[in-house]
Design goal:
single chain, 25% strand, 4-stranded mixed beta sheet, 208 residues, alpha/beta, 9 helices, 3-stranded mixed beta sheet
Length: 208
């Protein structure tokens, strides 16, 4: 059995476990999840997956962790996905379409290796490269940058937040460079400072 067939066979056999996430003991769930990742990594060790449970089913997202060199691997795997009742199979992290919770400031803080960030409290300033006008960079401004600036995982944490916000493909294809800095009172008064949750809208309105 080739690695693609093997992965989907395993997922089909065990999909009910992931549908019942909240009803299964954590240890048992971790065992099943680790096994699913192991079978995925037999196909490609650099891919990952995310499972989102919804009221009437669940979604399995296959992600390349933002690496454009692995996009074709993700597309191939999802292309061969079988139809599984109550499951939606998705290639790549998709853009967050509902930004109401960010606008209201009711989003939950996300923790990553001791770094706590809230998208509603993050801002950005567009940056240009004079030598390459079509390259878009951004400076991400954090309220608690000073607290986390020496944490080697900070850049990774910021990247993950942006990837979940604007989608994996946009993150890889539309942003050329990212800087991170402390948010100041002056930044908040500057017209160039934009709430991070508007980043996808900003990218979509640019004329490349």
């Amino acid at each position: 059995m080739n690695p693609i067939t093997s992965f989907w066979h395993h997922f089909q056999q065990n999909n009910f476990v992931f549908l019942l996430l909240n009803e299964i003991p954590q240890e048992e769930l971790k065992t099943h999840f680790d096994k699913l990742i192991e079978v995925l990594h037999q196909y490609n060790k650099d891919l990952n997956l995310i499972i989102k449970n919804k009221k009437n089913g669940a979604e399995l997202i296959i992600t390349a962790n933002g690496n454009p060199y692995l996009f074709k691997e993700v597309e191939l795997l999802v292309h061969h996905a079988p139809l599984i009742e109550r499951w939606k199979i998705t290639a790549f992290l998709q853009p967050e379409l509902n930004i109401e919770k960010y606008e209201n400031g009711t989003d939950k803080p996300l923790e990553y290796y001791g770094i706590t960030l809230r998208i509603s409290e993050m801002y950005f300033i567009p940056l240009e490269n004079p030598n390459k006008p079509t390259d878009l960079g951004i400076k991400v401004l954090l309220k608690n940058y000073i607290v986390h600036k020496d944490n080697p995982r900070l850049r990774e944490a910021v990247y993950i937040h942006i990837e979940h916000l604007i989608g994996e493909k946009s993150f890889a294809n539309d942003l050329t460079f990212i800087e991170i800095d402390q948010l100041t009172a002056e930044d908040l008064e500057d017209d160039c400072t934009i709430e991070l949750y508007y980043l996808k809208f900003f990218i979509d309105t640019l004329e490349w």
